Amino acid sequence: MVRVKHRYLLLNILYPEQEQYPRKASLPDTLQFHHPSPDDLTPQLLARAIRDQISLLYGDYGAGLTNNGLNIKYLSPATSTAIIRCSRDNYRLVWAALTYMTQLPKSSKFAQARSCVMQVVRVSGTIKKSEEEAIRRAKTAICKARKEAAGSATEELNAILGQPGPEVELEMLGQKGSKPIAALEDEDDDGLEMMSDSD
């Protein structure tokens, strides 16, 4: 008996349009393209959009190859992340269709299609590795955003107070009764003996 092997594609949905989403000054640059997806985006709607794109690119041949094995295992509208399961033999067709998708489908008659970019981040043989990569990328994005936010807050605070950051720390170190940093670098090391391997 032959086991059917699958591939799991970790997908980020990015929204590059700046007119529809005005830039907020408090939002770091790393989060500008990572908007939440609309709440009406469901796994079934995304799977239908991928199948439509495959049939548009590859016709009945591509639709027949990928129709049974294509499945959305995870979709988070809050983080705009999805994990897609497809057969190992045809994952490149699904990847190409995702690359050429330029908008999310309309969920109802009155909704508008949102332009987006589908970014395949990782292709994995197990769903566990895809989940671990999604968690690692989310943690990295949070740390990077915090670092950018902290850097901009420090710069704003220094601009308000009129204090440059690094020079103030050097002056404070010199006033605490210790030797200035320049004096520490100029001291001679004559009093220290060097031990060698022969001793």
Would you summarize the structure shown here?
The protein has 199 residues and is an alpha+beta fold. It has helices spanning 43-66, 91-100, 127-161, 165-175, 181-186, and strands spanning 6-14, 71-76, 81-87, 117-124.
List the helices and strands and how they pair.
Elements: E1 6-14, H1 43-66, E2 71-76, E3 81-87, H2 91-100, E4 117-124, H3 127-161, H4 165-175, H5 181-186
Antiparallel strand pairs: 1-3, 1-4, 2-3
Helix pairs in contact: 1-2
Can you tell me about this structure?
With 199 residues, the chain is an alpha+beta fold. It is built from five helices and four strands. A four-stranded antiparallel β-sheet has the order 2-3-1-4, sandwiched between helices. Helix 1 (43-66) packs across helix 2. The longest helix has 35 residues, at 127-161.
Q: Helix and strand string, N-terminal first?
A: EHEEHEHHH
> Helix coverage percent of residues?
40-55%
Mean pLDDT: 75
How many β-strands, per DSSP? 4
- Computed over alpha carbons, the radius of gyration is 27 Å
Which terms would index this structure?
alpha+beta; 4 strands; 4-stranded antiparallel beta sheet; 43% helix; 199 residues
